[in-house]
Structures are given as C-alpha cells and as structure tokens.
Fold this sequence. Notes:
Layout: H1 15-56, H2 63-81, E1 92-94, H3 96-129, H4 138-141, H5 143-158, H6 188-191, E2 203-205, H7 207-210, H8 213-257, H9 264-287, H10 289-304, H11 310-325, H12 327-333, H13 336-356, H14 367-374
Antiparallel strand pairs: 1-2
Helix pairs in contact: 1-2, 1-11, 1-12, 1-13, 2-3, 3-5, 3-8, 8-9, 8-10, 10-11
Amino acid sequence: MEPNCSSSSSTPSSSSSSSSSSDLLLSGEKLIYAITIPLSTSIILANLFIILGIAWNRQLHNTPNYFFVSLLLADLCTGMALPFVPWMGLNRQLSFSSCLVAHVFPNFLFLAFLLNLVMVHYDRYTCIASPLHYSRLWVHRRFPLALLTVWVPPLLYAALPAFGWNNWSAPDWDYCCPAGIAGQTRTQEERALPCPANDTSSTCCSYRRVFPNAFIYLEVYGLVLPAILAIAGMTGRVLWITRGQLRHICRLHRSLERGAQASEHEQRLNLRYARCVAAVSLTFLACWVPYIVYMHVCVAFLLTETRWSSTTHIVLSCTGIGSMAVVPLVLGLANRQYTEPASKILQKLGDRWRTKKPLPPPPVLPPAHMEEIAL
C-alpha cells in the first residue's frame, strides 16, 4: 500500500466552500481518468499479449513460467485497479464497507504483485546461482504452496483494517464533510458522526481512518522497502555471477587462440554484457526510483501531517504505481519466446483481414480508349 498523503478538502465554513470543494473533486476526477485510463489500458493489453504467447507455446509450460504467469496476472489486476489508486488519497463520503473495499482491495493487489515479483526474481536467481540444486528447491517440488505464499499473506495483511486495525472510530480530522445548515461550524463531536448529506449512512472516507500510522509504517519499511531491496540485491548478484562467468569464457577463449589481445568474439560478449547492465540500470531508474521517491515523500508528509495539492498527489501516485507496473512488461517483452507466438497470431489475423478486403473495381475507360484497346 502506497502511503497516500493528500487531502482534497479543507475545513468548510460556508456553502460556497462546499461548492468549491466539489469543483476540486470533479477536476481531480477528470485528471485521474485522463492519466490512468490510457496507462491502465496499455498495461492490461501488454499483459494479455504476453500471457497469450506463453499459453500458445507448450514448451513454456513449466514451473518458472507458471510463476511468471502469476506475476502477469497480478500485474493485470494492478492495471485494472490503477484508476482507483489515486482516489485512496482523496476524501470522499462513503459507507464503512465501501470505504474498506476502496482501500483494502487495491492494497491487496499491490502487495500480491510485489510478492509475485520477488518470487520471480528469486526463481531466476537460484537458477543462476545454484543450477545443480535448482530442481530440488521447495518452490518446484511444492508449486501450489509457493503460489499460496505470494497470494494469501498479502490478502491477510491487507484485510487487517477490516478486522479492527483501523481508525474508523477516531474523530474525522480531515474535515471532508460539508458544513451544517446556514454555514454553522461543526464541533469535534459532530465531525465523528455521519456527514449531513443526502445519504445519512455515509461518512468521511479517508485513508487515515482506514490505515493507522503503524500499519503504514510496517507495510512501507517492513514489507515494501525490504522487497525492493531484495529484488535489487538478487539482480546485482546475478549480474556479478554473469560477469565472472564471462571472464572465465574469455580466458578459455584466449587460451585456445593463444593470443593476448581480445578477439572480436570477446568484444561482442563484453558489449552484450555492458548493454545488459545498462538495460537493468535504466529499468531500475525508470521503474523503481519514481515509486521509491513517491513513497518516502508521502511518509514525510504523513509524519508532519502536512497537506499538499491533490493534483500533485494524483500525478505522483499515477507515475509511481504505473512505473512499477511496467517492470513485468519489460521482463516479458524482452524475451522473444514470450512474444513470438502472439506476434505470429497477430500477423496471421492481419493477413486474413487484408485478404478479406474487397479489391477495388477496375477503372472505367472512356469509349475512345476502349476502341484503341479493341484495335
């Protein structure tokens, strides 16, 4: 769960402030959908494209690719929930159950996505670091149990606010409810009561009322940040092992050729390794750094209880979550085995569509040209 730290409305004192807050909410809604809908559609279509490629190729039906399909499904669900993530930082009038679903469900999908990503990196790390013991690992011998470990714990942790770990009974310090009749200011006791709106069963739904500060700190620094560091550590270790194997291959190549200078083949290997390191570094900078920055900025605002612009929150949340959701797509689209079957299917469909298009009618020639053709 990314720590949301914005508040879309301030303490109302009149009906004009209530209308202005509704206008701000409407403009925030337009901005959310303008950013998230194209990004969410792209993530969903790209995941479906890769899943189709894996399902079509029977040679890819093995345990490592099953883990990757689980990651793609989690990423697909994250893309579907992406338009609802920025709403977690905006105060709205919702019932208790609706407010819990609006916050718990996206948080569960995010944590499941993160644990699936850790599992995929762990599987690939053990394949390279311990290739002889790779098939003996518990993740291969007990594959259903491994899948449960990346889906059930996120659900249990995300559902803790529904079992009582929340601030719902605390006073509404965000003051998102409109003022009373004739612009009367609501007291602190009245702020804890349902909002005096048309639907009396609704209350001020805020992430502060669903997620206590201890819950946010535990998730950020006990789950999310260690998972990101573990992914970075395993990726760096894989690159280090690859570098050592590359040096060993180059030494063997030089001993066979009995030359002291680097051959053309060795230079190509070094260049390929340099490209791999550059691609991994750029992927980390483009996909993880925006989310890490957004996460720590939000925690800083949460500690100081400072309110900031809802527009800034919407842009940063969409950028952070969206960039992180691109990581599995980079891993999948970079593998030709995943994309080749789906590309062939799309190419065949395109060829059939072109052949079904009616041919243009022949040009109608004037009578003078017809006579020349007859002669």
